[in-house]
Design goal:
about 190 residues, mainly alpha, two-stranded antiparallel ribbon, 7 helices, about 40% helix, globular
């Protein structure tokens, strides 16, 4: 957001076309969002099934273009306090989404399940269809991101449980084993 930032993503955000939401969120939150996005794209079945929760615009495709002005608008909203500016668009998009679901479709939440900021809004719309990876219980953001990236690499989808009635907080699971270091060839 710094005016002098000259890397590609910063330049694209200042252009009228903008930059993909998924790319921006990945830059902002690193491992956590990169893991969520890679996992969702690997296991959602179709690209249009991958949606990102935004602070002011409800559910959006990770390919939706955003500008610096849009990001500034996102930054003005505190989603943790249940702001109507956050809740209304999310609720509206969730209601529209549920009307298109088949009888056995599930909605998998890869966001935080320990707090109510997403769960309260989405559970009211999706009910028992709203599920989350059981392995998320007790894990922080970075651990969840690392776990999801490992699952993508292994081609392994996690088991899910309905959010309604689930224990969403628990003891911290053991640390994930470190990933093997990748050797990057250099020229010369």
């Amino acid at each position: 957001m710094r005016p002098g930032a000259d890397f590609l993503l910063a330049r694209r955000l200042r252009e009228s076309a903008g930059a993909p939401l998924g790319e921006v969120y990945t830059f902002l939150s690193g491992l956590y969002f990169r893991g969520k996005l890679a996992y969702a794209r690997a296991f959602a079945g179709r690209p249009e099934y991958v949606l990102v929760i935004t602070p002011t615009a409800g559910l959006r495709s990770p390919d939706a273009l955003v500008t610096l002005d849009v990001l500034r608008g996102f930054a003005r909203i505190d989603i943790a306090d249940g702001s109507p500016r956050f809740r209304r668009p999310l609720l509206g998009d969730a209601k529209a989404l549920v009307t298109g679901l088949a009888g056995d479709d599930e909605v998998i939440l890869l966001g935080s399940i320990a707090s109510s900021k997403y769960v309260d809004v989405l559970s009211g719309v999706f009910g028992a269809r709203l599920k989350f990876p059981l392995a998320f219980v007790g894990r922080g953001d970075m651990s969840r991101g690392g776990l999801l990236l490992r699952c993508v690499t292994e081609g392994r989808e996690l088991p899910y449980a309905p959010v309604d009635g689930a224990i969403r907080r628990g003891a911290r699971p053991p640390k994930l084993p470190p990933l093997p270091r990748r050797v990057v060839p250099t020229g010369g």
